[in-house]
# Entry
Amino acid sequence: MARQLGRTNVDLHRPTTPLVAAVVVTCMVMAACSEPQRRTDSTAASQQAPPPWAYPIQPPVKPPPDDGVPRRVPGSTAAFTLTQIRDLYVVSDWHPGDHPPMPEILARGRKPGMFACGYCHYPNGQGRPENSSLAGLSAGYIAQQMADYKNGLRKTLEPAMTSAVMLAQAKSATEAEVKISAEYFASLKYKPWIKVVETDTAPQTHVAGFMLVPLEGGGTEPIGQRIIEVAEDLARTSLRDPRSGFVAYVPVGSIRRGEALVSTGGAGKTIPCGACHGQDLKGAGDVPPLAGRSPSYTVRQLYDFQSGARAGLLSAQMTESVAKLTVDDMVSIAAYTASRAP
# Structure
């Protein structure tokens, strides 16, 4: 495995601004749900260490108190305080005209067991690198993933990641809540969300709320064999603006290498992705789309399939497909799929 370069740091001594605090607030909840040790899954088969840039973990950070000043984002007449934006049970809906009316479980959750689904995945289903984009997935696929979480079949090699929260959510959710949520997200159209940039260098980053965030005043560094996915506008992402997307910096040449693996299987190294995910990578039935989705998330899923952490109903084909892949291969595949039009 290539040597990992750069400073993807957990920095607990730098001042935390109110905007960045809004990004990290869910750390406390996720850490409380997670196991005390990382990589405890005894089924792990992968001999490759999990790439830290794909599993950005940060210990709980207490955000500064709310100053009471309402925040705003471009193109919205709404205003919310930091306390409102940090509320996991009520979605701060900046752009209600961008999506159908949200069912109650998406907009307000159900205390104490269910957070508002739209909080993490956004009301428009676009999602963020630390979770999943749900817009455009089939209702059947979403419901199956919830069942896999509930039955302990879908995990991750880093239990402090969001799967710990999803496990708790899946165990709490009723069949009716899963159905209505799945149908809502499946009805949404996934929009272009990730700008993929091939480069030899990327911003220096640290971890804030399970995301990579550029170091304030930091410069650039060699990218190595990594994907560095950051908010296009950190201030807007910190306020959970679902119109503000992400930039993914990927190694030069990775898109071309990924295209070869995805389209031909790389001379037997894997199975051509279009055989199941559609030739345009936009999904087929309950097989999810790959085009235009977060490359950080994609690498995490490929690694979790290879390790055996993801072992749900639809996982057998993927386990075979990823068995021979190196992390560098996963980087190339994710760079290519993310670069495709959704």
Summary: Confidence is low (pLDDT under 50) at residues 1-45. Residues 8-339 form one domain.
